[in-house]
Amino acid sequence: MNARIARPERRAAELTVVLVIIGLALGVTAAPASAAPPWGACGRSTPEDKIVRQFPAGITLRCGGPIGSSDPRHGYRHILARHRTDFENMAFGTGTFQNWRDVADLSIETIANDPDVTVPVGGNQLCMSRVIFLNDRRTGQLVRQQIVRMFINATTRDVNTLHPHQRHC
């Protein structure tokens, strides 16, 4: 009787191995359930106009720059250099079990889809803001509400900067 029980289990294991090998041969991969957003990489010499991610309403996050600057003025490099800590505090300080890029990505996506406020500001920019609701990824429980402001180029709709704030635009 034990041989009969073991045989179907062994066949299932063998079938699983075969399917994994076929999948790998075909180039099929699976992302983990909590995969980070699909942001393109920005290396030290990556062009400023490389797209990191496109969002609704024609909004685009680019690498930005200037390249090699210790004080980048726009795009991903600016957010990384000047506001990463702000988003880390939003993510880790409240127990969301997300990383700073997850929170920044959620903020851009949410603001692009449905801003609470959109106003023109100087320098051909639009300021868009919204209350962002952060949930604990494990429990789904709301752990924080935070206003986030996003400034975009009014013509190209490229993200210049993004940061938490006490007030709307």
From TrEMBL:
It comes from the Bacteria. This is Uncharacterized protein. The lineage of its organism: Bacteria, Bacillati, Actinomycetota, Actinomycetes, Pseudonocardiales.
